[in-house]
Amino acid sequence: MPFQNAPASLASALAARGYDSATPVQAAVLAPEAEERDLLVSARTGSGKTVAFGLAMANTLLDDNGRCPPAGAPLALVIAPTRELALQVRNELEWLYGQTGARIVSCVGGMEPRKEARALSAGCHIVVGTPGRLCDHLSRGQLVLSNLRVVVLDEADEMLDLGFRDELETLLKAMPDTRRTLLFSATIARDIASLARRYQNDALRIDTQTGSAPHTDISYRAILTDQSDMAGAIVNVLRLMESPSAIVFCHTREAVRQLQAILTERGFSSVAISGDLGQNERSRAIESLRHGQARVCVATDVAARGIDIPDLGLVIHASLPSNPATLLHRSGRTGRAGRKGTCVLLVPPARRRLAERLLEGAKVEAEWSGAPTPEAIATADTERLLASSALNTPVPEAGDTRELINKLTESHAPEQLAAALISLWQNSLPAPVSVRVLSPGSVKKMPRERSRDGEERGERSRGPREAGSWFRLSVGREDRADPKWLVPMLCRLGGIKKQDIGAIRIQPDHTLVEIAQDKAERFQACAAATDPDEITVEPAAAPRQGGGYKGKPGGAGGAGAGKRPPRKGGGGAGGPFKGPSSRKRKEF
């Protein structure tokens, strides 16, 4: 039996779900040496890690009969970086623990907090939630962690990148020291290792990525294309590859809106998923993908977390990932369960060197080419038509269809019928776009900078004299502005990381924030795509005593420890912020 070490109630649920073998990470957490241990697990997207940590915490929660005790204060807490991922985890645990009597409650942003509070008060065994909403319930006394036996940090690297360190530490400090801590992360970087050392006890290290090797079922292609042809290249890639479903990643919400509008106009059934959507809109978009009503999902990286798209065969990076781990994480959404998948990077010539470094860092090899041409798409269309199973449809002996066949064959020549069939079929497909084809061999690589001794080097490291771009926030000392909540708010809503924030100057009625020069445009675009509320952001002149960008926030980072100004409508920490819409960046 593949899950012989799992409780019988969970093994039965897995068998009913069609699981006939354990993935490497699932087998590792069921090994005898992992029982009742803290775990530090490195596992990529698509590795079956949700089921893995469900199995890992089972013996801690269930009695000898494979049942949960009477419901009261939660025994297990699963923390995920985004609402979508948390809801997906809850759904997975519900069927996995379906025979145990477990009551599972989710606590995520965008949902009615009073309904969550009632569910917590009624008693539960497992709580799944996002850091901010969990801290809100904890501060109100609605989430009681005194009985907690096990906590799971899912995608811990993403939570730290999004600025949730203080929320995580607030939650971890409120738990009993005797609880188990299971930390799952795509990568074990320095900050993850630091978190593990601080909050885990003699953790067993599990690495199922074999040196961070990429999925063997995913093929990579890098396509050189001018920035002006980016949308056309995406159209042609979608047409050439004809995947049942595809996801296209963009950096900003505005880029998502623009591209989704273009694809819809060209005839693709597509949906956009970004932070602009309310929960009901987001749920409808996801359902349309799962039920096959939409074929293409255009999304920002953060908003796409936790979205499980069936039969996803194609991942397109319209904007290059920020690092190799993100490249592998995005791409890992395809090539699952033994199926093949394709990952396509669209690379402007000026960013070819960056793309090569990403691929090298991710340890993957990509086939370089120019954008698909209408001629290549026409050839692929012909091959697909000739191989279509519809051409083997049995001819009925009688009935309305047979009668129609007789009328058509009596009044039209075979060539006319074939021409009509081809015309109807071609008109049902989105038309390809004429784009400039760049040959990888004819495009010169951008030269690397050289140090004084002539050695090649990568991107220039930032020093203390490098000036950043300054922005003005509409909150200040009078509004209890504090770096402890400003920093994570800027990270989450501005699409940047903590190290991209320089000096923070808090004035009586406003705050000046320095953003790394190479991230300022993205920050401004994300800010401009956010709905206006109490806090606004706009470009500002550097203060007279500007200290230059150093890559460190000007105050203590994190959230949850400082006082926040009043919020409306449950926005992000400190409320949403917005920049002038006239300054939005156009990516396509």
UniProtKB/TrEMBL annotation:
PROSITE patterns: DEAD_ATP_HELICASE (PS00039), HELICASE_ATP_BIND_1 (PS51192), HELICASE_CTER (PS51194). Keywords: ATP-binding, Helicase, Hydrolase, Nucleotide-binding. Residues 30-206 form the Helicase ATP-binding domain. Residues 440-466, 530-588 are annotated as: Disordered. Belongs to the DEAD box helicase family. Residues 446-465 have a biased composition (Basic and acidic residues). It comes from Acetobacter senegalensis. InterPro entries: DbpA/CsdA_RNA-bd_dom, DEAD/DEAH_box_helicase_dom, DEAD/DEAH_RhlB, DEAD_box_RNA_helicase, Helicase_ATP-bd, Helicase_C-like, Nucleotide-bd_a/b_plait_sf, P-loop_NTPase. GO terms for molecular function: ATP binding; hydrolase activity; nucleic acid binding; RNA helicase activity. Residues 233-379 form the Helicase C-terminal domain. SMART domains: DEXDc, HELICc. Coiled coil: none annotated. The keyword Magnesium does not apply. It holds the Pfam family DEAD. Residues 545-561, 568-577 have a biased composition (Gly residues). The keyword Nucleotide-binding applies. This is ATP-dependent RNA helicase DeaD. GO terms for cellular component: cytosol.
